Amino acid sequence: MSDFTPNEMMTIAAARALSNDDVCFVGIGAPSAACNVARLTHAPDITLIYESGTIGTAPTVLPLSIGDGELCETALTTVAVPEMFRYWLQGGRITIGFLGAAQLDPFGNINTTVIGDYAHPKTRLPGGGGAPEIASSSGEVFITMAQSKRGMVKDIDFYTSFGHGRGGIHRQELGITTKGPTLLITDLAVWRPNPETKEFEVNSIHPGATREEIARTCDWDVKYAASVDETPPPTAEELGTLRELKARTDAAHAGTASKRGSKDG
Amino acid sequence: MAKFQSLSEAVAENLKDGDSVAFEGFTHLIPHASAHEAVRQGRRDLTLIRMTPDVVYDQLIGMGMVKKLVFSYAGNPGVGLLRRLRDAVENQWPRPLKVEEHSHAAMANAYEAGAAGLPCAVFRGYKGAGLKDVNPNIRSVTCPFTGEELAAVPAIRPDVAFIHAQKADRKGNVLIEGIVGVQKEAVLAARRSVVTVEEIVESFEGVHPNACILPHWTITSVVHVPGGAHPSYAQGYYPRDNAAYLEWDKIASDRDAFQSWMRENVLEVGPEIFATRVAPLKEAAQ
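ok -> structure tokens follow
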């Protein structure tokens, strides 16, 4: 299987990072696609949780929002939103929080609040939604986003969700006991934080992508792990599953927002 | 004791200028019909509260009815940003808008604290988050038993809560099914509440014993408005009108287009229009 897009590689690489035993708090958009590809391939028993209260959901098409009826209809159970945040997230039941980002810095801090100054923003973004506590209460955090100089920046304009702060042991200094961001999957590479500094380093480069391209689409100085692999290309099963999921989604949401990608809290 | 009323009576009796009001719904059962009635009645200086302000709050803000917004995620679900909200925050049009911004965990806890009669909510949150620095209502308390520092936010106690639900019975008890969001908490936290419903049934006999039911004596007013959540959805009745959310992005991108849309689709119509809006969605779903 040689013909695939960088976005397909991103979704599939992200799906591979999830296991059958995970309890995953799913952000909308790219994380949602990855989590459902994992469920439809190697992790059929993964528990997917959306912040609208749906626990153990198994949608046949990707939802446009975190509260689509499909999520509730296919869930094991649906709980009220306060219960979702108190018992299930704060209670420590989530192994992986899976987030997207508008702006991301090299330490996994995320901004989805404002571009520019908070009081007088250049662009008012939707805000954090569940992300601030997903970032601190999930066992660990995976982040997925397509690379761009506007998106991957040295300094974010607002700390919507805390990753590793200024790096090192900054999380522990704030009394946060969870691991924080442990994985970043972009359309070009798989990144993991350096064990000491906590700055993201490229661990593997997707087939067809180059170091030049990674540097050109990232505003910070890209660091590389001691050994950098090539990400294994998508298998026929992975690619087929993703494409069928997208086709079902497009058919179900025909004439609607699906082609624009899903964005919400 | 819930009164059965028309929507115009229920809004006139329960929503006053200057009130704090929650039109709640977490991506499901969003009370559009009630909010549109508030537009027709020209309510002013409202403090709007909602976890996920979307299209309908964009409309109220664009109409200049809102002085302050308390929220945790403001977006057009599945589409992107809210253009009337952005115009208010970035350009103060049609009037400046104060914002009090929280996380979902904080808002959900604050509604629950309101329902529980507590003055504040305590939870483990906002660690390292920037909102602490821009919202003076985010503070901390120390656990008297363990010494752990926890986040605290004031309870939400709206003057009035509006929600939409599937069913009321003849007494005015209300049944909510599917994604129930924070609507039960919003009603129990509010001083007054108005519930629009898809259907009024004789009784709830045979309903699952653990179903989400608000007793009639917790509700001020019940109004029968079929389709009243459109373009949001009502599980078991009609699906979400995704095309309308996409269309809103275009309408809201231009001040004149926005105003003429509001005139034609809100000011010059009544709540009965909602049943006709969902009719084709119901048909397509069968």
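The two ends of chain A are 35 Å apart (CA to CA).
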